[in-house]
Amino acid sequence: MDVLVIGAGFAGACAALMLRERLGATVTVLERDATPGGMLKTYATEDGLPYEYGPRVVSVFRGTPDVLPFMRRYVTLEERDIYQGTRLRPDYPIIPFPVDAASLARLPCGDDIRKQVDAIRARRAPPGERDLRDYLETSVGPLLTELAFAGFNRKFWGRRLEDMPATWGKLRRLERIAETGHYRLPSEAPHYYPVGGFNPLFAGMLDGIDVRYGVSVERIEPAARTTRVTTAAGTFDADLVITTAPIDALLDFRFGKLEWRGYRIERDIVAADSRERLGRAPDGIPFAWIYTPWPETPVCRTTDFGVIHHGAADVAQRGPSVLLREIVDDRVPMYPVWWEDERFQRYLEAVTAIPAVIPLGRLGLYKYTTTDSTYGMARRLVDSLDAYLAGDPARRLDILRAVRGDWGN
Ligand SMILES: Cc1cc2nc3c(=O)[nH]c(=O)nc-3n(C[C@H](O)[C@H](O)[C@H](O)COP(=O)(O)OP(=O)(O)OC[C@H]3O[C@@H](n4cnc5c(N)ncnc54)[C@H](O)[C@@H]3O)c2cc1C
Q1: Is 10 in the pocket of ligand 1 (CB under 6 A)?
Q2: pTM of the complete model
Q3: pLDDT at 180 exceeding the cut of 70
Q4: 57 CB under 6 A from ligand 1?
Q5: Domains in the chain, please, with CATH?
Q6: CA dist list (Å): 124 to 127, 168, 180
Q7: Is the Cβ atom of 11 under 6 angstroms away from ligand 1?
Q8: How sure is the predictor about 277, in pLDDT bands with cuts at 50, 70 and 90?
Q9: Whose CA is nearest to atom 39 of ligand 1?
């Protein structure tokens, strides 16, 4: 079987590799950029200091543990202590996020927050489910809701809490913010950084696969016995096309544009001795990144890559590193506004009418993914490919929904 994979990000690279290894397919990958990786890429400053734009670490965030042995075939994964912090107001100290009771007590309004949280605990009622404000106010109290979430959601998602579903809070377990003592990155699982950055991962995965760089796919359409892919560099025919490009663009935006939120980045180089800029968690581990949820700044998150790339110990001895600020900019499609996804369901139905074109990945399946959930999607697709190709449109739709999965995978 001749397969064209569109996109050499993690989803495309996983699919290309699995199709070749497991099904013996002849695979060609078409990638718009000059390098593979997509969001999962390590960049370097002019002086060679590394930083990432997308994932900074990998972990089993969503229950696909076999991503770790899979990645270890190509790179060595080193464990990292990842602590995240937050400055809830410009004049407040940085505290761990999710917050702990002792840190909250240090804030000017700490007593009031504690009273609200205690009152909620005493009521022992489940969180409200009317909307995200209801969910948050009944699980962490109105004050913390305003400080940690209202401004951030307005700034990043462009939504009032009343306009967002309670499910968003429930899935991400946002009420954890009021738990005590647990302030590591929201996953108890260890976090890993690959030695040498993420780029060697793609060199390994795509070794021996025909990858054409600088080729942007413009159109995909059924041809006589194959599927034809049109690019500025010419046309390609294949038995099957797996596309990790945006599904709305692929189908000529026929149901309108899907909604995304994103960041642009600003970079600074910080000297080793100024590395305390983001502060330390109470147990002495420097924060890897901090959130600034107040609405008056467009900056959502600031990351110190020194902590991620070198580990936490002896940061002062490790030389300069990159400090990166993420600034709201919706021209960069990063996070799907998935709870408004009726339009996406129409795209999914339309694409399953065409048997030999299958969307995949965060852009193809409009999913809020992590590295492990991306791997899970590719594996489920290859596992069910025979059934997909033999099925009718209704069966293909069922399979594609299962491949996309849910928040947990
Ligand atoms: C800001 C941010 C932070 C993240 N942090 C983490 C984290 O800490 N941990 C974690 O596990 N996950 C994280 N993720 C999620 C992770 O980035 C994704 O799960 C994963 O990288 C998605 O891979 P993908 O291949 O689906 O998409 P992408 O990486 O976007 O790859 C798509 C590829 O397709 C190419 N392409 C698109 N259109 C065309 C076209 N028309 N023709 C040819 N090629 C095309 C693109 O150039 C790109 O290379 C983060 C994501 C973001 C946005």
Answers
A1: yes
A2: 0.95
A3: no
A4: yes
A5: 2-41+198-255+337-404 (3.50.50.60), 53-83+187-196+263-328 (no CATH), 111-169 (no CATH)
A6: 9, 21, 17
A7: yes
A8: confident
A9: 245
